[in-house]
Amino acid sequence: MISVILKLFFSDIGSYKGVNYNLNIPFHEGLKSEPFVRVCKSVIGEVFNNFHPNAIVCQCGADALAHDPVEGLNLTPDAYVQVS
């Protein structure tokens, strides 16, 4: 699992049979779309090159979007499109 998270939740390593199969990409609050897209493409590209997955599941929550009261990121809907 690849998680894009705020830096304060960085310690999650997965659970049960998924322990150590979790990759967290930590970001600071206020992150904007351009650096998010650049980092995600680079990191996710390396994961694909090294692990050659047969399937990809993408669960994109809305809490990272700009002006969402739950999280502190500042992404546009297009940022999700660019990294999927």
Indicate the topology.
Layout: E1 2-6, E2 23-27, H1 33-51, H2 77-83
Parallel strand pairs: 1-2
Descriptive account of the structure:
This protein has 84 residues and is of the alpha+beta class. It has one domain (2-83). It has helices at 33-51, 77-83; strands at residues 2-6, 23-27. A two-stranded parallel ribbon has the order 1-2. The mean pLDDT is 77.
Key features of this structure:
84 residues, two-stranded parallel ribbon, 2 strands, alpha+beta
- What is the alpha-carbon Rg in Å? 13 Å
Overall mean confidence score, pLDDT: 77
Uncertain parts: none
Strand content: 5-15%
Q: How far apart are the first and last residues' alpha carbons, in Å?
A: 14 Å
> What structural category do the secondary elements indicate?
alpha+beta
Q: How many strand segments?
A: 2
Tally of contiguous helical segments: 2
Helical coverage, percent range: 25-40%
Largest sheet: 2 strands, parallel
Into how many domains do the coordinates divide? 1
- Following the backbone from N to C, one meets helices and strands in this order, namely EEHH
Strand order of the largest sheet: 1-2
- Tell me the overall shape: globular
